[in-house]
Amino acid sequence: MNKSVLLITVLLLTLCINFPLWASYEKGLEALQKNDFQTAYKEWKKLAEKGDAHLQSTIAVMYHTGVGVKQDYKKAFYWYRKAAEQGITAAQANLGVMYAKGTGTSRDLVQSYAWYSVAASALSLEKVGSALWGIDYLATKM
């Protein structure tokens, strides 16, 4: 088999395997545009469970705010943590807040400081100020 045929075969298999995931994302997006948050949650949770970090963060926000699902801080913490561990800056910062306040988890200022620091290291200079304020504040409480 020549390299071109092999490459095309691999690409087609990849598309066939990932198409259901893309379709689920699209269904969730369409539902969101119609303010059907429950359907968006249902579609996106499948992808979050498969490891999509951005959707893990989105699911966390939904649980944190109670949009589309019953508000549940423990579940929000769970999903923020999964997204934060994959490098999603907003999830890292939100995890820092949850640890600082003891929301959905035990209050832990050391963990809060650590997650704020990780988030701040990924921010641009324009945005780092508020994250540094959080770090400085936590340092005074430790």
Shape-level CATH architecture? Alpha Horseshoe
Structural class given helices, strands, pairing?
Answer: mainly alpha
> What sequence of helices (H) and strands (E) makes up the elements?
HHHHHHH
Q: In CATH, what is the homologous superfamily? A: Tetratricopeptide repeat domain
Number of domains: 1
How would you explain this protein's 3D organization?
Helix 5 packs antiparallel against helix 6 (109-122). The chain has helices spanning 3-33, 37-49, 53-65, 73-85, 89-101, 109-122, 125-141. The radius of gyration is 19 Å and the shape is elongated. By secondary structure, the chain is mainly α. It contains seven helices and no strands. The chain has a single domain (3-141), classed as Tetratricopeptide repeat domain (Serine Threonine Protein Phosphatase 5, Tetratricopeptide repeat). It starts with a helix and ends with a helix.
Task: Summarize the topology.
Blueprint: H1 3-33, H2 37-49, H3 53-65, H4 73-85, H5 89-101, H6 109-122, H7 125-141
Helix pairs in contact: 1-2, 2-3, 3-4, 4-5, 5-6, 6-7
Provide a brief overview of the structure.
This protein has helices spanning 3-33, 37-49, 53-65, 73-85, 89-101, 109-122, 125-141. By secondary structure, the protein is mainly alpha-helical. The longest helix is centred in the N-terminal third of the chain and has 31 residues, at 3-33.
